[in-house]
Amino acid sequence: MAQLASISSTLLYIAFLLYLVATVFFAGSIKSKKHTNQTGKNRWATIGITITLIGFASQLGYFITRWIASGHAPVSNLFEFITFFAMMLVASFIIIYFIYRLHILGVFALPIALLIIAYSSMFPRDISPLIPALQSDWLAIHVSTVAAGEAILAISFVAGLIFLLKDIDLSKGGKQAFWLESVLFGIILVLGFVLSATAFSVAGYESEFTFVNADEEETTVQYAMPALVTPNEGELLTEGAFSTGLEMHELVNAPRLNTVIWSIGVGAILYLLIRLITRRTVAALFQPLVKKANLDMLDEIGYRSVLIGFPVFTLGGLVFAMIWAQIAWTRFWGWDPKEVWALITWLFYAAFLHLRLSRGWEGNRSAWLAVIGFVIIMFNLVAVNLIIAGLHSYA
Amino acid sequence: MSKIICQCGHENPEGSELCQACGRTLTEAAAKRKTHDVMRYEGMARRSQTYHSSIIDKIWNFFSSVKVGVTLIFITLVASAIGTIFPQEFFIPQNIPAVEYYESRYGIAGKIYYVLGFHDLYGSWWFMLLVAAIGTSIIIASLDRGIPLYKALKKQRVERHDSFLKRQRIYTAYEGNASDDVIERIGEGLRKRRYKVKAENGHLLAEKNRFSRWGPYINHVGLIIFLIGAMLRFVPGMYVDEILWIREGETRSIPGTEQEYFLKNDGFTLETYQEGDSEVFDQTIQRTGAIAKNFQTDAILYKRDENAVAGSQDELTEVDHHAIQVNVPMKFDQFALYQTDYIENELYKMNFTMDNKETGEPVGAFTVDLFNPETSGVYELEEGYSVELTGYYPDFSGFEDGEPQSDSPLPNNPAFLFNMVSPEHPDGEVAFVAIQQNLEPLGPNEYEISFNGIETRDLSGLTVRKDLTLWILALGGAIFMFGVVIGAYWNHRRVWIKKGPDSILYAAGHTNKNWYGLKKDIAPAFEYAGLDQPMDHQELKESDSSAKEEEESGTTRQHK
């Protein structure tokens, strides 16, 4: 079993590398001089999608072997869930790709999947046994459907992002250019987190503090990065480790805030370096890539993925969720933060569809809504688990 | 009611935008609106767009507006998010009043949160009102649109006026092609694609998946049923939410069942994963410590015989016997019992010995059941020795005026007043015994009571649930899903073929969504008839503008 678990990790690693290579080929496909219409058959894109398929098969292998090794569907903690979400994102991309054959989608969808996999592996990757509440077939059913729904909805974000990169006139500046740059900055921050966490982990950095928590109890806490902020009445136990001694309020999760500060710091430096070296905004850097993109097609793909994803999300995030909640927690609905944020996600996409269907919000506005929707999904995926404690805190 | 008479002679109700017979645009305003907007409800008169005078009109128009509906959705969305900033009242510890908890834990922000009532946001009158407003909006907006749409699609004419066809996004006039053979072939091609094709005077109307248009209205019906189901919870008798704390070995009546059902706890089990259970888990267990594996109450369900005395436990018949676990509730009648809580190792019995102080020799041992101390109060020991329990203080909290006090009937800190009878002291010696405490209130004794171990048992916390609204919610949910799926995964597509004068063939296509799919769907039929596929005017517009853009920025040459 332990061997199977290690094979599983290797397969995920291979999938990661293959997605990376596939991204390069998709980038090649839109650069190709012979090929101007951006859809249909193209040698670069064919190689790109083939590698993507092999990568997906490898990730599926990771999923199946890990399932066998652990004896349960590997969607039971943050690492497993986010990785599975990335896998579903790739699957959604593959499906949408075969419907529309729009190459540029791969140039953006795959890097986002890569970033999500990298992000997920910053959480503990051990295989953990299931607590009683999770011992149910509904774990696999509910979680996989939610992830699939959210992943399909995320394709609308990818299409929306490409749409906006082409549609917004960056030379004139303005609100839209600012917010588009902010979205890209946000993506760079995630990269900042992955880079700093990986760097300190490779360097083997670790330090421990004792502190007094909100319930007035003394406990210890581990820091994976040098402490820029310390917990309430925190005292450093590890010799030679770094600490500013800047104490936080008892309600603040200091090690997490510390990680956030490092991520923002590293991300901001990264962003500034890009700006200094290239002397352009990040949006402007990407814009040449999307010059030939077909706005109408992107708008259609964005809308279509919301239409496909919304029922799947409703089924997984609300219907299956309620059925399982009735079985495991005695009530189908209990205003747990994760439940509330699933409802918020659902309400948001319901509003999206109404605005689109009845008020004609197409193109630019629809693309912005898709971007906001993805932000909400990511908030529910990550922040609700890490910031707002609730029944779903399985990290 | 005034009518609008179209040039073709058809009388349309007031408020119509398109003639229901020929499709001509009826008003200046409609002519200026985008085709996509006019076509959404087939240019039909809608109550909300036609009448504006009475108060009922105003209410109707308010709730039928999608703008209002979406605004309500956004307000609900933001409110819901606010409710997750701090935990809701039902998540905070029960032993602290909410008014103190929020301020002491979250400071001034917590106080504001509490004062504004956000600690019980989802149960607040205004949140309920918001949901009710959304419900009203769903009903009115659906009636306002659904009924006219149904009527319009039901009585469609095959032949439409040229202007109607020209307005469509997919439209081409093929010159010199209007032969019956070509039209026949287009019809045949579309039939192959599962279009229902109607022919009239050589014109065609091909249509498929009209049912997909009913999707939104069906899912709205589902939502309304769901909301009604959610409201019914407040009807007495529909919903039971009780907690049953039950000790190992105990039999208790199940709250909410009117003393009809009883449950016996035949043992509670708490298991944790052990290192070595599975080698793949070892690392996690080492990192996080013990992980719970199972919470289980072995339960026996009894039903009281119908003519038994209320409250008595004598005439019970076993009905069911199985383990209640998390995720595996015990179901009976309309009830379900869930494993939701437990307390491990509650004091159950205390063992004592009575010893001779001088020799240290015990003269006998006895056990006090902390829940059910010996009723006669006398524990017989060896010949001539006995202990009388004269006072029992299960939750001892100290003395008041020389009298021992008990805070509760639960044995959290048991204390005892014993009278030790021995041959030397036939009237007995008095001893006060508490945990870590031995007093001799009436002077020194010859004998003493020594503590000789405890027995504990577990308490199982079970939630008793009855929810008669579940089937209504399930029905609403199922209808919603059905509606949302047919609305999202199918598209209503129509193609009009008109034989014009001078052998001109007009072809137009419309879909409620997924234009790319429509184009792909109908292309083979036109190919089969030897025609180019009809043009998408929106795409043309866009490529025109992007071509212009490229010309302006001088980039066209680069990719040629």
SSE map:
The complex is a heterodimer of chains A (395) and B (560).
Chain A: H1 2-31, H2 43-70, H3 78-100, H4 104-120, H5 137-167, H6 175-202, E1 207-212, E2 218-223, E3 235-236, H7 254-278, H8 282-290, H9 295-328, H10 337-359, H11 364-386
Antiparallel strand pairs in A: 1-2, 1-3
Helix pairs in contact in A: 1-2, 1-4, 2-3, 3-4, 3-5, 4-5, 5-8, 5-9, 5-11, 6-7, 9-10, 9-11, 10-11
Chain B: E1 3-5, E2 11-13, H1 28-32, H2 35-39, H3 47-50, H4 55-64, H5 66-82, H6 98-115, H7 125-154, H8 162-167, E3 170-174, H9 180-192, E4 196-200, E5 203-208, H10 215-232, E6 239-247, E7 251-253, E8 261-272, H11 282-288, E9 292-304, E10 316-325, E11 330-332, E12 335-356, E13 362-369, E14 378-380, E15 386-393, E16 396-400, E17 403-406, E18 415-421, E19 429-434, E20 437-439, E21 447-467, H12 470-489, E22 493-499, E23 505-511, H13 515-528, H14 537-553
Antiparallel strand pairs in B: 1-2, 3-23, 4-5, 5-22, 6-21, 7-8, 8-9, 9-10, 11-12, 12-13, 12-21, 14-15, 15-18, 16-17, 18-19, 19-20, 22-23
Helix pairs in contact in B: 4-7, 5-7, 7-10, 9-13, 10-12
Can you offer a commentary on this structure?
The complex is a heterodimer of chains A (395) and B (560). With 395 residues, chain A is mainly alpha-helical. Chain A folds into two domains: 2-203 and 259-386, no CATH class; 207-249, no CATH class. Helices cover 69% and strands 4% of the residues of chain A. In chain A, strands 2-1-3 form a three-stranded antiparallel beta sheet, with no helix packed on it. In chain A, helix 2 (43-70) runs antiparallel to helix 3 (78-100), helix 5 crosses helix 11 and helix 6 crosses helix 7. The longest helix of chain A is centred in the C-terminal third of the chain and has 34 residues, at 295-328. With 560 residues, chain B is α+β, with helices and mostly antiparallel strands. Among the domains of chain B are: 46-154; 162-209 and 491-559, TATA-Binding Protein (2-Layer Sandwich); 346-460, no CATH class. In chain B, the strands form six sheets. Chain B has a five-stranded antiparallel beta sheet. In chain B, strands 6, 11, 12, 13 and 21 form a five-stranded antiparallel beta sheet that branches. In chain B, helix 5 (66-82) runs antiparallel to helix 7 (125-154) and helix 7 (125-154) packs antiparallel against helix 10 (215-232). The longest helix of chain B has 30 residues, at 125-154. Chain B starts with a strand and ends in a 7-residue tail after the last helix. Residues 550-560 of chain B have low confidence and may be disordered. The interface between A and B is large, with 65 and 70 residues. Chain B: It is a multi-pass membrane protein. Chain B: Residues 537-548 have a biased composition (Basic and acidic residues). Chain B: One of its GO terms (cellular component) is membrane.
